[in-house]
Specification:
alpha/beta; five-stranded parallel β-sheet; about 10% strand; globular
């Protein structure tokens, strides 16, 4: 691809350049404010050769843009601790966080412009150089390739209201050496050019081939590359400004079309639900067929369950286990006598405590996801796991209603920013599955977005597993009858009354919708690398011991095999 860059064009005169550039910048400033008002985010990535002028081009833009809606993230340099983590990863040791975490974490809100001075492609290049840079297509055994994670990241941003613009600043070998030498010879700028960068010019030809393959493999239709002549500052500034103006104009037009499409989908869902009321008796699913004694709320819930199920994908692009769970086949009869519970709980907690120390030294991250019915016992289960751990070694991440900043970011942002450090434990009391459960059932999110959420979640979890995490996903199950008994017990006990809310009672009437959503979740996200595990919790003791046993066995298999 790099051969497409015209490096021999005649430079523009200063006057001609200034007139067009000023007009473009004036237009860009106005468009930025429109983007802020309409919640259209812009991600602008600058990649390219050392000395190609990436930082200067960003500085020229930042001088004119509204700083309140603009941020710049600079990837760590090659001699920093973060870069040493990359080297460790290349040698087969887990980094403290996954490949894409720092870029998710630094992402600005929708409506803002986030500039990345070097980014995920620089990081992928360093990883490839630390391992085997000869192949940019095939992943290592059992793992996805870096480019797959990058493609997922960029696609998810675009789906979620961002426009991704990727610039690659290209210069010839001679021009690169001249610029780096000039910076090094000036005492005021020498700090910007460590000797490693000077030496890198000797590897220009090898890096040219690597960059070319990387660009070709990541020139996605939803986030194409813009190749820039880094040897001509004026031409570069004009090309960049034109591209950004066009990108924001296109994003604002797409935003208007998206609003209209969402309104159409909501109407389709309403019509489908109305049809479901009339035709539900023909449905095979147990949550769609009305009974004679159903209340009007339950009849409506069954109709909506059928309508929402119609939006769910037929299959996943990831491999799903054959024996994934189903709501209607859960076993509610499993129990554990109290004396056996006390004995096994104590033994398993002791083993877990010892394994935690080994896990820390081996830098293995452990992530425990708890989803389940209200009053199923998620919190009590988490407490018994936490009781066996050093308080400094774990975090419990609840998933309350999202905050304003969280709503202004993509759905998975709040979880990419809440990961345990390698060697630590992260426990999630409800999780990213709210996208396909609560947001679907309560009609918070448009159907086309939650329908895309299944594989977005699968992508996220695959990145976690590739990072080295032990990811265990628990569905804490309880029968409707036992749930009702627990609700009533909570209302009668002043010390536990805070645990029961009007929403809990309302959700019982929406059981058909939640059952349908849960079954689709099992069907589409019980992947071979992160399958769902059912904790039968009509007897909480049984569920607690089962969870601990599974956790201990997973750690022993990883650490002792």
């Amino acid at each position: 691809m790099l051969e497409r860059v015209d490096l021999a064009s005649e430079p523009l005169s200063k006057d001609a350049y200034k007139q067009e550039y000023d007009q473009l910048i004036e237009k860009l400033v106005v468009l930025q404010q429109r983007a802020v008002n309409q919640g259209t985010g812009l991600v602008v990535l600058f990649e390219g050769w050392n000395g190609a002028g990436k930082g200067s081009r960003i500085s020229d833009l930042m001088y004119n843009l509204d700083a309140r809606a603009t941020s710049v993230y600079v990837s760590p340099d090659a001699d920093t601790e973060a870069a040493r983590e990359l080297k460790a990863l290349g040698e087969g040791v887990s980094s403290y966080y996954p490949l894409m975490q720092e870029y998710w974490k630094s992402l600005g809100e929708r409506g803002h412009i986030t500039f990345y001075d070097r980014g995920w492609y620089t990081k992928a290049t360093e990883l490839l150089l630390a391992q085997d840079p000869s192949d940019l297509v095939l992943p290592k055994a059992g793992a996805r390739h870096y480019l797959e994670s990058i493609e997922d990241f960029e696609r998810q941003l675009v789906r979620d209201g961002y426009t991704v613009v990727k610039f690659f600043m290209h210069v010839r070998k001679k021009a690169q050496k001249k610029r780096l030498d000039r910076l090094y010879d000036d005492a005021a700028t020498r700090w910007r050019v460590p000797e490693k960068k000077l030496v890198s010019t000797k590897d220009y030809d090898e890096m040219y081939e690597l960059y070319d393959k990387l660009l070709e493999g990541s020139d996605f239709p939803f986030a194409p590359w813009v190749l820039v002549n880094g040897e001509d500052k004026r031409a570069a500034n004009l090309q960049i400004a034109r591209t950004l103006v066009s990108a924001i104009e296109g994003a604002l037009d797409a935003k208007a079309q998206d609003v209209a499409r969402q309104e159409s989908e909501q109407e389709r869902l309403r019509v489908s639900a109305d049809e479901g009321k009339r035709e539900a008796e023909d449905a095979a699913e147990m949550w769609s067929a009305p009974d004679a004694d159903d209340s009007p709320a339950v009849v409506e819930a069954k109709a909506k369950a059928r309508a929402q199920h119609a939006f769910a994908p037929e299959s996943s692009k990831f491999q799903i286990v054959k024996d994934y769970p189903r709501v209607e086949t859960m076993d509610h009869s499993l129990t554990l006598p109290r004396d056996e519970y006390k004995r096994e709980l104590k033994e398993l907690q002791k083993r877990l405590f010892g394994l935690e120390n080994e896990m820390y030294q081996a830098r293995v991250p452990l992530m425990l996801v708890y989803e389940g019915w209200d009053a199923a016992g998620k919190g009590g289960n988490i407490k018994r796991v936490a009781q066996a751990l050093d308080a400094r070694a774990y975090n419990i991440f609840p998933s309350p209603a999202p905050t304003k900043p969280e709503l202004a970011h993509p759905h998975l942002w709040r979880y990419w920013t809440r990961l345990p450090k390698a060697g630590h434990v992260g426990m999630y009391d409800r999780s990213w599955y709210g996208r396909v459960l609560v947001e679907r059932t309560e009609e918070i999110t448009p159907p086309e977005r939650w329908a895309e959420g299944y594989d977005e979640i699968n992508e996220f979890e695959h990145d976690l597993v590739d990072w080295g995490a032990i990811l265990l996903k628990f569905w804490v199950d309880v029968s409707s009858e036992e749930q009702l008994a627990r609700f009533e017990a909570r209302e009668e006990n002043p010390a536990k009354r805070w645990k029961i809310t009007p929403d809990d009672w309302r959700n019982r009437e929406k059981y058909p919708q939640y059952a349908s959503a849960i079954n689709d979740m099992f069907r589409l996200t019980s992947t071979t690398y992160a399958p769902w595990i059912v904790l039968e919790s009509d007897d909480k003791r049984y569920a607690r011991v089962k969870a601990l046993r599974i956790i201990v066995e997973a750690l022993e298999e990883r650490l002792h095999s």
